[in-house]
Design goal:
By secondary structure, this protein is of the alpha+beta class. It has a domain of 56 residues. The protein is built from two helices and two strands, in the order βααβ. Helix 1 packs antiparallel against helix 2. The protein is globular and about 35 Å long.
């Protein structure tokens, strides 16, 4: 999922090799090889969406004046709805 930058609680920089490892891990899971129906009209495969999202997050951080990375994995705290 894509998060607004002010909602991100932890950001983990990824090197080009780590991004490749992440793609390979995704591709090893058959359930993530095809597009997910719940993501609307986005035709990209899961690994493509993931890489583009991680690169876009890194670009947002760079535009804010922080270090430049290949990609950044963003995390937020999951708070279940009561």
């Amino acid at each position: 999922m894509e998060w607004e930058i002010d909602h991100i609680e932890m950001a983990v920089p990824l090197s080009p090799e780590e991004l490749r490892q992440k793609r390979n891990a995704i591709l090893k899971h058959q359930s993530q090889m095809e597009s997910a129906p719940f993501l609307g009209d986005d035709e990209r495969l899961f690994w493509q969406r993931s890489e583009e999202r991680n690169r876009a997050t890194a670009d947002m951080y760079w535009k804010l004046g922080l270090a430049s990375y290949e990609a950044i994995e963003a995390f937020v705290e999951y708070i279940p709805v009561q």
